[in-house]
Amino acid sequence: MKSVLEIGEGFYNLRGALTVRGVLPIGTQASLVRRKSGGFILLDAIDLDPDARRFVDELTNRGEAVEAVLHLHPFHTLFVQRAHALYPEAKLYGTARHKRLAPELPWEALSTDQPELHALFSDELEFSVPKGVDFVPSNENLHFSSVLAFHRASRTLHVDDTLNYVRLPRPLSIFKKDMLGFHPTLGRVLERRAGAAKDFRAWTRELADRVRTIDNVCAAHTSALLGRKNTGPSVAERVETAIRKVEPKLAAHEARFG
């Protein structure tokens, strides 16, 4: 996959290299959003390869037009310092975990999972935070929750981990080319209380409504689903299928906790 994907009007997805334990290549992402004012917002951070670095520099006057960096996933922290070093004048936003792990950086007071932050960027973006699940679980190997960002102008969803999009290799692709689904750790991050499954189910219905106007999904670690290349179901249909597939996990949680 190219390191820079021009998704649509004012939205660019940046793909980066990342390996688990030094052997398993999973990749990661960031996205660059052009504001109506002409400035830019960076969603998340990656290790930009030379082509991506050159592209961003040319688009943003060597980074001077990057107004804000929004870190949307509490467990995507590897490239936080590097992004700040590249764009030191950009306002820096993250989750509480980002701030705890890198207290030396000049974080803004608002966190990326707060409605007040979402209101600041509502001219270009809408945001959604999963309900009924631990945003930062005590088991830090469970990376389900993130802040989802919707870019209206390009009809794009930027999402880290919460939803995965995978293109299947041969011979599996003979039967099914790709799939979109919720991160498999859902059953382990649902809050251990009555009503958590109901809250998550309600959030998925909100998500299903939002993606009716979405054609593109930029997902971390896996791939980007581009509307212009999508030969399968629409994004809305894929999300509906993903919701149905997690219902057994929600029912099991309700049977245990109510």
Keywords summarizing the entry:
258 residues, alpha/beta, Metallo-beta-lactamase, Chain A, seven-stranded mixed β-sheet, five-stranded mixed β-sheet, 7 helices
Fold and architecture overview:
This protein has 258 residues and is of the alpha/beta class. The protein has one domain: 4-Layer Sandwich (Metallo-beta-lactamase, Chain A), CATH 3.60.15.10. 28% of the residues lie in helices and 26% in strands. The strands form 4 sheets. Strands 1-2-5-6-7-8-9 form a 7-stranded mixed sheet. Strands 10-11-12-15-16 form a 5-stranded mixed sheet. A two-stranded antiparallel ribbon has the order 3-4. A hairpin with a 4-residue loop joins strand 15 and strand 16. It is globular and about 55 Å long.
Strands, helices and their partners?
Elements: E1 4-8, E2 11-16, E3 19-20, E4 24-25, E5 28-34, E6 40-43, H1 50-59, E7 66-70, H2 80-86, E8 91-94, H3 96-101, E9 107-111, H4 115-120, E10 125-128, E11 148-151, E12 156-159, E13 163-167, E14 178-182, H5 186-189, H6 196-210, E15 216-219, E16 224-225, H7 235-257
Parallel strand pairs: 6-7, 7-8, 8-9, 12-15
Antiparallel strand pairs: 1-2, 2-5, 3-4, 5-6, 10-11, 11-12, 13-14, 15-16
Helix pairs in contact: 6-7
Give a quick precis of the structure.
The chain has 258 residues and is an alpha/beta fold. It contains seven helices and 16 strands.
Q: Assess the beta-strand content as a share of residues.
A: 25-35%
Order of helices and strands: EEEEEEHEHEHEHEEEEEHHEEH
Question: Sheet with the most strands?
Answer: 7 strands, mixed
Please tally the helical runs, counting DSSP H or I stretches of 4 or more residues: 7
Shape: globular
Number of strands: 16
Structural class: alpha/beta
What percent of residues adopt helix (DSSP H or I)? 25-40%
CATH topology assignment: Metallo-beta-lactamase, Chain A
CATH architecture: 4-Layer Sandwich
